[in-house]
Amino acid sequence: MIDPVLLAILKGRLEQIADEMDATLFRSAFNPIIAEAHDASHGIYDAVTGDTLVQGKSGLPIFVGVMAFAVKAVIEKSAKSGGPKDGDVWIFNDPYAGGTHLSDFRLVRPLFRDGKVFCYLASVGHWHDVGGNVPGNYNPVATESFQEGMLIPPVKLYDRGELRQDVIDILSSNSRLPNSLFGDLNGQINALDLGVKRMEELLADYGDGTVEAALGELKARAAQLMRAEIKALPQGTVSAEDFLDNDGIVDEPLRIALDLKIEGERMVMDFSRSSPACAGPVNISRATTIAACYVALKHIFGDVPANAGVLEPVEFVIPEDSLLSVRAPKPVGGYTETILRLIDVVFQAIATIAPERSNGCAYGTINALSLAGYRGPDKKRWVMFSFFGGGHGGHPEGDGLNHGNAPISTATIPPLEILEAAYPVMFTQWGLRQDSGGAGKSRGGLGAVYELELLEEEADVFLFGERGRFAPKGVVGGGDAALNRFSYEQTDGEKTPPMASKMVGIKLKRGQKVRLETPGGGGYGDPAERDRAAIERDVALGFVSEEAAERDYGFQSNKKDAA
Amino acid sequence: MGGMSSKRYVIGVDVGGTFTDIFVYDQIAHTVQTTKIPSTRGDQSRGFAEGIARIVPDFSEIATVVHGTTVGTNALLERKGARTGIITTRGFRDILEMRRRDRPTTWGLWGQYQPVISREDRVEVSERVLADGTVREAVNDDEVRQQAEALKAAGCEAVCVFFVNGYANDANERQAVETVRAVWPNGYVTAATEIVPEIREFERLSTAALNAYLQPVVSSYLDRLEKTLKERGFAGDILIVQSNGGVMAIDTAKRFPVRTALSGPAAGVMAAQAIAQAAGFANVITCDMGGTSFDVSLVAAGESALSAQTSIDFGLVVRTPMIEISTIGAGGGSIAGIDNGGILQVGPESAGSDPGPVCYGLGNDRPTVTDANVVLGRINAERPIGGKLARLDVEASRRAIATHVADPLRITVEDAAEAILKIANAKMAGAIRLVSIERGHDPAEFSAMPFGGGGSLHTGALIKEVGLKSALVPRFPGVTSALGCVVADMRHDRVQTVNRLLDGLDAGALGEEMVRVADETALLLDQAGVAFERVDRIYELDMLYLGQTHTVSVPLDIPVAGLTGDGVRTAFEDAYRTTFGRLLDGIPMRVMNYRIAVIGRRPAFDMGAFAPVTDRTAEQCRTGSRHIYADGAWHDAVLYDRHALPVGARVEGPAILEQADTTIFIDPGLKGTVDAFGNVVIDRMAG
């Protein structure tokens, strides 16, 4: 067995390599979704199985679980063409094989030692535009992946060290923003170069055998750690379910149901009672479902590492062709909404058996809003695309965070001054939203109100959001948060989308506004137990209106008392 | 400095949480004296003056007092600034509280955040400027006045005026600030664009809001300090160390207190830079090990690295240039234990200094890094540094390590203690790698410079682990920040957002503007009443390819003939190639900001003043020997009185050099040599 001290040292060195790869891409990426929102990830993967061995800490959490599937897809593909070669770099975005959606391009590179693969290094990043029917690729009315963007199966970007310019040409000609694509791709290549260099230094310092033994040991320890966490939970089965508003095509709710069984050191996550695959783009592949469960578990059990061993004691039951395990060409562009709901369901189930480890659901939608048009005398195309924030759930230690990022991401929001400098829009409001947090002993954090006005002749507006019909839930007796609400101005007045939070083809004219009001987080614990001083303060600050304070907490303000 | 021979002293004072360190330089006799006295909580100026008086009874002999202060830092961390208001554009009162939609930790959703300015004190007025600088709606003076009066009536002591897009055109904001200043009862009015006229609303507002929040606290402290010193006959200058490592006049500090956010640590790095330079070391990595954290900072080719932005705490963002200091959770109080997966972990949980390590006997029973050092004989348990405790409980340390580490891993207590140090050292090594390798530096060309009380125990291990060239232990590692005050230059930074494509930019006009702003900034130096050997100017552009959001810092020469577009292009391509390797041909370039630094170089401080004056030999400085455990075996380490060691003394490891404020451990296989400035240089023994 490897010396425990050396193991701890190598663990730190390996994590640092992945972190450095993340940092390299963030600094050199072109599109703000990577550079600002950190919608990317890097790691080190098993030479045979593709399992995640080490993953960077600063990338998008959802990728921690999903990248193993991407590496596996490359291993399978390369086996058909004589196996991996030194200097090969593979590129693809097939979501059915590699998880998530078409916007996420993966680069996978074998690291060779003495003529054989020692491990794989991989990089994934969310590109700005990969073709399809709508700029930015969040097409809320897609019924096939062809309407969401180009689908590239695993192909070689580098063949034994030789760059294949023809591949870049194909990719570039399928994007509305080829410069951005080229810049991001270069950033990912830089990150892989750096990873290879750092791994070679590490192997030279410690020897291949020692590092290999450490990687194996880390996986075994991760499994051991997870088993210990599971064993500490009460035995038995609990169930939880929640709903998506609709799929953007058919206005019917979609169920995500979890039966969570704890059996000694094992956990079964059974999603059998979930809805079948739907027509619109909120389906997800099996790889994505497993990755989302990993994210939820890691939020709850913070000490478990980013390593495949964590999932060893967890069994998944996910029926094929259900909403949570679709095949091509079912559309998957809106995968973020589905996995956010899935994470909510895991939180709700855990809250039933271990309330002290849980929290109210977060706002639960990324609200991808896109405005696009042509500007200036030469009619240059512009596309503004951004995600928005909301509240986090109340928790055992206090009220939820106001205006946080989604649990699947560590993304920051672009500054409004950067958006206004880059696009013909003017924000008229960017503030916290009153009464948006769920009531509770610990109140849910507040969502936000964003309102902006168009400064050009006209623009097309797209929105891809959720939680317009089913609010983020409170737990342990806490109340639900406010619903998501989107509205837009037309010459005949204010409108809201028939599908609540999903719509394409809104035509906005100069001076008209769109307004997005996002949910807060669910409450935690019985509102009747909330400290009176905290309620008074909420009302004084305008976080909670007097009406809501009276309704949710039976609170009468002093003003009313005096009257 | 100053012509009057009666004013012979330059004094550096660093006020920390526990101790006030005084460093007195006699510019006529070229001698130094130092002292340390407990900080006086509540009013730091008392301990400040008493400490100086211990060495210099007659304050009229003092030419300059240079001060590194933690008053601002502590007020931020403890949320003890003044009640402050914000007057802002209608629709945007919550920018400060919404931050950039982040959360404190990646994993776990239990984060919380209290903004320093409460929502009830954030008020709005009608006005709007567009991103291109167009005034869409003018500001109404009456409305501004009413809101200012309302904030005043609510009890706000300070106020910050922040308008969206003020960086592009500050006309509305300036007008509003004038209105507020006319009715505000004191001088505590901050205009956001006066602090940072740079794009990104949250970062600009946060910096300005923190400035306003700190102003009453820091200003009144500095007023008290001036008064206390004057009462004792002081008639010299007071300078304050900024986070960028330069000093500013006391009046500037009262206007821009946010610039003192990292004043103390920055002074330490300045000292390291000066000591290293004098000793002939161009590249050093400073290592400041405290109870809970390990701070590293890089000095490459004689210059310390600056970062444009720092978070003092979650959501407390300060966007002014600061000495780049990376902190990791590995200090003397970091707790060691075995996690559920059976892996030995050290930190980030810490016992701090209270209850502190197990050997303090103050209630903690989980082993720390310091306990490991005690068990291995590297710390003198009978004479602990700092003078707080009479002796350390070695047996308690042993028991804790046995229970929590050695028994679960089935190894001996000594091996367990050494493992704890190895993990802690590996973490510190990781931090050093991140600040060096990541920026393209080869660690083999760098030396570690420990300061603070604990760092000197670990430098030998860091040399081995990271492959550093050597370590340079200054003569007074415990008072480094106070020395830094004495050697720091005067420095002022300016920034302005340009946000134009290079192709459409009048580079000549931009160059002229930068020179003009530099001229204005230089006036601040002239007014400070301090003599400089010379004044340097640094010009930089923040540039990027169109479509990117992160900028590359582009150093610029502005030729007498004027700046040209081609000159800017070449400078950008050089900087980009160095940073990322590949250029992106055919993509337009954008100039986001310009940055200017004007630096008044203060007369060099003669480090020769540190040279030990002694006629003893190294042999004569031996004070005994101690059993120490290293590399899996017990050794007899020779003990030395460090300050008695003469220049040129050579000490082979394993050895321990003791002095009042630190303990230096020289590992087996390493040697220490005293250089001409009293530093101990530790490096490998020739093979």
Task: Provide structural commentary.
The complex is a heterodimer of chains A (563) and B (687). By secondary structure, chain A is an alpha+beta fold. Among the domains of chain A are: 4-224, no CATH class; 359-530, no CATH class. Chain A has helices at residues 4-28, 32-35, 61-79, 95-98, 165-172, 178-206, 208-231, 286-300, 335-353, 416-422, 532-541, 546-553, 558-562; strands spanning 40-46, 52-55, 89-92, 104-113, 116-126, 155-159, 162-163, 236-244, 254-263, 266-270, 314-317, 368-375, 380-386, 425-432, 448-454, 458-464, 485-490, 493-495, 502-509, 513-517. In chain A, the strands form 4 sheets. Chain A has a 7-stranded antiparallel β-sheet. In chain A, strands 14-15-20-17-18 form a 5-stranded antiparallel β-sheet. Chain A has a 4-stranded mixed β-sheet with strand order 8-9-10-11. In chain A, strand 6 and strand 7 (162-163) form a beta hairpin. The relative contact order of chain A is 0.11. With 687 residues, chain B is α+β, with helices and mostly antiparallel strands. Chain B is built from 16 helices and 35 strands. In chain B, the strands form 9 sheets. In chain B, strands 13, 14, 15, 20, 23, 24, 31, 34 and 35 form a 9-stranded mixed β-sheet that branches. In chain B, strands 3-2-1-4-11-12 form a 6-stranded mixed β-sheet. In chain B, strand 2 and strand 3 form a beta hairpin. Chain B is globular, with a radius of gyration of 26 Å. The two termini of chain B are 48 Å apart.
